[in-house]
Amino acid sequence: MSDKLLVEESHALPLVHFQVVLPTGSLEDPLGQEGLTRLSARLMRRGTRQRSTQQIEELIDSLGAELGIETSPGFVRFSGSTIKRSLEPLLALLGEMLSEPSFPERELAQLKRESVAALVELTDSDPSLVSTHFRRALYRGHPYGRTSLGTRGTLEGITLDHVVGRYRDGFARTARTVGFAGDITPSEAQGLVQKYLASPRGATAARQKPPEPNMPRGRHLRIVDKPERTQTQIQIGRLGTHPRDADHVPLVVGNAVFGGAFTARLMRAVRSERGWSYGASSRLAIDRVREAWNMWTFPAAADAAPCIALQLELMQRWVEAGITEEELAFAKSFLIKSHAFAVDTADKRLEQAVEVSLYDLPGDYFSDYTKHVEAVTTAQVNQALAARLSPADLVLSVVATESDIGAALKALPGLTSSEVVAFDADAS
User: Fold this and answer.
1) Contact 411, 305 (CB under 8 A)
2) CA distance 4 to 353
3) Which residue of 44, 51, 138, 272 has the fewest C-beta atoms within 10 A of its own C-beta?
4) Same-fold call for 4-197 versus 219-422
């Protein structure tokens, strides 16, 4: 039987969504073998003892189903959806992938080529680049700063023996969390898991816990140098909170005031009043350890330096002066009303239940979310801002053409250090 079974029933349509989550992720990739977990997971779909890659894909297509694989620092997730009558043959196939992968070597070579192509594709996406380099700078020396995709160099060094070893020592020995949402009952789900998806005998739920990250002191600028950029991508931020921290929900409420809504301070100042960036927002992420708080804008190159200066000024004012009672009331109303869209379908509710398990969240994090928000006071928000979001300690990641605006960026106030990295360093 699996370590955990989660079911969210909804019989409005004959559709079933499912997830099978293995609590082992890319943070367990050995140094110099970044990309190993992702390659291993994807290779499990490329052949089993009973089926070839082509046969697997033909079966999925014939069922009218979807089946995807996601690799993150802390887990590997197999997920998909199908009409109910096709669910059992699809889960039978997934059970083969999980327990009887054949790991064809020719498919490993193909997956490596596809991964290198994905690296090249990433360099074409400025939003992806700025996010990747923001995390590398923020989590320097921490597993969360490493890429699940790997680099050209690490991918080339991964062999079939490495993949088989990663599967044997990681995937095949971990208990699973299995979730279903849609037209299925708990008893039906339990029967299907026992028949096709049961955890291996002797499986353990134990997993490597990421170390707590340390926030770099000072303001650190990373310019991702890309030629001929007339528009920039900018992420600025620092470590935030974990949902088990007492001041987490107050910080969520405070963020809604600053950059979590269309009418928030950041959007008004950057877009509405100055027209520097079509979008301007901030968010507070969650994971198993403290994740990032960051703000994101994408102004024209000529406006990048003044836009960043304004953002730093707005953040300073927000943290030092706090929010008002009127802003608190707005943020609470916005968060409580918009929460309805986070729980309006069974698959969204399933996703929340899985996140509670994956990220070690309080059991009532989502179920009592609106109650927690309603209980927040202005004093709690302002205390959380002052305690968590020092404007003196920030990471600034900017995708731009360094020769055009590098001097202006390096002249921003309060910088402790700056560095320039090539946009295509990983793909070269």
Assistant:
1) yes
2) 11
3) 272
4) yes
User: Is residue 1 over pLDDT 70?
Assistant: no
Mean pLDDT of 246-270: 97
Q: Are strands 4-9 and 177-182 parallel, antiparallel or unpaired?
A: parallel
Boundaries of every domain in the chain: 4-197, 219-422
pLDDT in tens, 225-234: 999 999 999 9
Which residues pair with residue 21 across a beta bridge? Answer: 77, 177
DSSP state letters, 47-107: BBSS-BHHHHHHHHHHTT-EEEEEE-SS-EEEEEEEEGGGHHHHHHHHHHHHH-B---HHH
Q: What CATH class is the domain 4-197?
A: alpha beta
Query: 37 forms bridges with which residues in the sheet?
Result: none
Confidence of residue 173 (pLDDT cuts 50, 70, 90): confident
Distances in Å between the Cα of 349 and the Cα atoms of 25, 81, 190, 243, 336 are 23, 15, 19, 18, 16
CA–CA separation, 104 and 114 (whole Å): 15
- Token pair recorded at residue 280: 């301007």
